[in-house]
């Protein structure tokens, strides 16, 4: 199976930033992790680009590997609903698509027609970065698994659902997504 170029995906998030700008933002992001701080914030496109370059490929790879170890009990029938919690730029969405592409390529999930991948996050600014990444992701999937996007419709509702896991109350939109999700 041909591998996906996840760094090519991360490059899509750069969207015109100079390398020196992104490098400085990556250093700041890394410093917050190394120092145990939580003050980086992802409310700017530059900070989101730093996250994409620094962490997105690794996060997608890690989540895909974890998903490959789980049974596909949640993936049955023609339609599947997925809720990506704390979705950020879409790492979990990309990993689930990667898993499904592998399974379809292996002749599994023959009945699967539509996968709805709903992102939930408290930082709705991630929608801008996801909008840059998603078209590139579809190109990469099509290169690796020709015909997949004809066989399976990947739906990503836009915008994401605003949801803060630290707050006790669910919005009606978040409750609906979580109630209907297969995964």
Q: What key phrases describe this protein's structure?
A:
about 180 residues, alpha/beta, 4 strands, about 50% helix, globular
What does this structure look like?
- With 183 residues, the chain is of the alpha/beta class.
- The chain contains eight helices and four strands.
- The chain has helices at 6-11, 19-34, 45-54, 56-68, 91-105, 126-144, 148-151, 172-180, and strands at 79-85, 114-121, 153-155, 161-162.
- Strands 1, 2, 3 and 4 form a four-stranded parallel beta sheet that branches.
- The longest helix is centred in the C-terminal third of the chain and has 19 residues, at 126-144.
- It is globular and about 45 Å long.
- The two termini are 25 Å apart.
Radius of gyration: 17 Å
> Shape from CA axes?
globular
Element pattern in H and E: HHHHEHEHHEEH
For the largest beta-sheet, the strand count, sense and barrel status come to: 4 strands, parallel
Class by SSE composition: alpha/beta
Report the strand count: 4
Distance between the termini: 25 Å
Please give a quick description of this structure:
With 183 residues, the chain is α/β, with parallel strands linked by helices.
Give a topology summary.
Layout: H1 6-11, H2 19-34, H3 45-54, H4 56-68, E1 79-85, H5 91-105, E2 114-121, H6 126-144, H7 148-151, E3 153-155, E4 161-162, H8 172-180
């Amino acid at each position: 199976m041909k591998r996906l170029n996840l760094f090519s995906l991360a490059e899509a998030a750069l969207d015109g930033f100079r390398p020196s700008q992104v490098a400085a933002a990556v250093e700041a992001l890394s410093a917050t992790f190394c120092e145990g701080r939580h003050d980086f914030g992802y409310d700017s496109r530059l900070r989101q680009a730093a996250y994409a370059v620094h962490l997105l490929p690794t996060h997608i790879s890690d989540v895909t590997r974890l998903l490959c170890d789980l049974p596909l009990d949640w993936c049955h029938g023609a339609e599947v609903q997925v809720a990506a919690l704390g979705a950020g730029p879409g790492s979990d969405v990309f990993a689930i698509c990667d898993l499904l592409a592998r399974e379809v390529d292996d002749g599994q999930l023959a009945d699967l027609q539509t996968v709805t991948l709903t992102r939930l996050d408290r930082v709705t600014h991630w929608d801008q970065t996801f909008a840059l990444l998603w078209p590139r992701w579809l190109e990469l999937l099509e290169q690796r698994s020709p015909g997949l996007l004809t066989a399976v419709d990947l739906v990503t509702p836009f915008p994401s659902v605003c949801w803060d896991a630290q707050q006790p109350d669910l919005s009606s939109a978040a409750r609906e997504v979580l109630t209907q999700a297969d995964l």
